[in-house]
Design a protein that fits this description.
The protein contains ten helices and seven strands. The protein is α/β, with parallel strands linked by helices and 209 residues long.
Length: 209
């Protein structure tokens, strides 16, 4: 999904997760009406990684496992960390996964925090994964390595991502363009390019930079 700030992207993300109810029409996810699904059941289906993700003041282990139901095996936690490219810096810490992060995770860099947040989303094994500018704190090459790994892991499931980087947008199978709170266009790259002025401007800006 692409669009200028304030165009309605984040509102759409909240609608499909059932945080808001639409004023009109129906939202369907996986063949079910959101309005007929309990908020708890709806939220369990989604993993969400934001541009800035709050961490707790506990350990790395606490933060990765936060929100998981039951007891996750050690290997599953470490696998999620590998998929988020977080394992190398975690293993380098004196206490590894039992390292205390300090208030709001302030002992980690913004990029390290982001990798922990991605690992936390992956270990929950969501049916739908939302990435809202999730690569903003990471260099493009590193994030795309993580993203390609996520696509492989989520094969058969759905990834919805909001981005402004056209290199990332080029990875999408289906595009949605928002403009001033309305859907301007949706479809493949070729279909959207033919009708969306917003998308054309993003492409022109990317080519000029």
């Amino acid at each position: 999904m692409i669009g200028d700030n304030g165009s309605g992207k984040s509102t759409v993300m909240k609608l499909i997760q059932g945080f808001y109810q639409p004023d009109s029409g129906e939202i369907w996810v996986g063949g079910n009406r959101i309005s007929e699904t309990s908020p708890r059941e709806c939220h369990k289906k989604f993993g969400y990684v934001l541009q800035n993700n709050p961490l707790m003041s506990g350990t790395i282990r606490d933060n990765i496992l936060y929100g998981t139901e039951g007891e996750a095996p050690e290997e599953e936690m470490k696998k999620a960390a590998r998929e988020a490219r977080a394992d190398s810096f975690i293993d380098a810490l004196p206490k590894g996964y039992d390292t205390t992060l300090g208030e709001a995770g302030n002992r980690l860099s913004s990029g390290q925090k982001q990798r922990i947040a991605i690992a936390r989303a992956l270990i929950a094994k969501p049916d739908y994964l939302i990435l809202d500018e999730a690569g903003a704190s990471l260099d493009h090459d590193t994030y795309m390595q993580i993203y390609h790994g996520i696509r492989k892991k989520m094969e058969g499931n759905t990834i919805v991502f909001i981005a402004h980087d056209m290199r990332e947008i080029a990875e999408a199978d289906y595009l949605v363009v928002m403009h001033h709170g309305r859907l301007e266009a949706c479809g493949t790259h070729e279909e959207v390019l033919a009708v969306s002025r917003t998308y054309q401007e993003y492409l022109q800006s990317a080519e000029a930079s």
